[in-house]
Amino acid sequence: MNHTDKQNPIPGEASRKPIGVFDSGIGGLTVVKRLAITLPNENIIYFGDTARVPYGSKSNSTVIEYSIQNTKFLLQKNIKALVVACNTASSIAIPDLKKMFDIPIIGMIEPGSRMALKKSQSKNIGVIGTRATVGNLAYSKEIKKLNSSAQVVEKPCPLFVPLAEEGWIKHQATFEIAEEYLNELREIGIDTLVLGCTHYPILAEVIQEVIGSKVELIDSGVASSEVIKTELEKLDLLSDSKTSGVQEYYVSDIPAKFKEVAELFLGREIEHVHKVDLEVLISEY
Amino acid sequence: MNHTDKQNPIPGEASRKPIGVFDSGIGGLTVVKRLAITLPNENIIYFGDTARVPYGSKSNSTVIEYSIQNTKFLLQKNIKALVVACNTASSIAIPDLKKMFDIPIIGMIEPGSRMALKKSQSKNIGVIGTRATVGNLAYSKEIKKLNSSAQVVEKPCPLFVPLAEEGWIKHQATFEIAEEYLNELREIGIDTLVLGCTHYPILAEVIQEVIGSKVELIDSGVASSEVIKTELEKLDLLSDSKTSGVQEYYVSDIPAKFKEVAELFLGREIEHVHKVDLEVLISEY
Hints:
By secondary structure, the first copy, chain A, is of the alpha/beta class. Chain A is 48% helix and 15% strand.
């Protein structure tokens, strides 16, 4: 018993560590929402790099550098696993993060791609995202790596992020913009549509109505939450806590309307928001 | 004669130096467009800090630091005057820039405010801008400093920037969004509306139609071009060239669709675009 106690002095200590989640901004809060549904007893620490958003327009080396800083910051908070809740960072930085850090690291692209292939009958899959994500064809490459006969069409929808942040989830203008963006994908006859941006689940209702009820929407936040649950189970790192998990939020800037938008994305009140000094982040991590 | 030659070895040399213009991104190209109309024989050098856009969500000290770097970069290109074609940098960094650099420096806020007061009969003035600009009340403060009895109402229109960048200048969705944003200002009964973001002149037609033909729109790019013309005249620094000026463009990143959007903003083909390495910008300026 003594020997076991030394290895694990407090029973369940390692498993009660929080899950870390980072994003370039606030979009990743839709992933936290899903994670808290899938793993309600887990503690979650979120870091949103709101001072340096967006990552999509930055060079690969910058995105990798920022992702490493964000991960080091979360590791210092003693996380047991990491969710990269940012499609840009997922597509660029995950190989480097996996090389550098010895914890389970889950992105958006692979879980979302696997779920799309699982749900799709026709293997005609659509992907919508920011101009940067779509420009990199990150989902197309991943889906075709997993199933070379799949057909993937990607379409950038740049107005969806500001529409989600405005909270115009049922506005007539949102329907018209969705019509304009999704018309082409509807005509191609996809049966599955990946929401390739963590902001987009906010507009899921409009997107579903415009693309048609027969098309299955894939929320990468749902997909990645299931993957991390399986990973933690395998490693015996699921929390044994019987009470609801606690969420803590760190951001590098608190822009105007932050609380309002964050709560829309998270689906509930946001508490425990701390501002991280960017200079400290850069120099210490 | 010799004495004069020594002071000014090539006649008109100082006056033939370019005018420098910087912005956090590409919005400032609408200012370049106006500047080239007002001063067709002047050479212009533009720097768009596309890698670090937007400035609006950054701290004051960061905006000042970036503005100093951008100005030093342009000074190295031998500019004779500077236009800060970014509302955020104009409202925050101009006092520091004026202290540090001994050339004429013109922003957006003061010229736009003066022109609004000049055009307005009722002194009921509206201002639209990004959430950051409106949050700072930069135009309200400037207008009230110039005329304490003026009434100013500011309204953020966050979707106008992405709509302008999408080029949806006559889209039904743009009209509906403008209706939503401008309804309140129309009901208040303003007679003058300041376009407090350098992207907004792209949407001037929709904005004019929605706000009504009796409301005068103020383009700060037009206002600042007139101010810089007057300044250069006073200092005897207007170019004596009889041929059309040349424009050169530097950006810290070339994002997707850059050329298309830049040409929409500039109103003509864009040539001579150079990418500036951000690390060089930070370390050398």
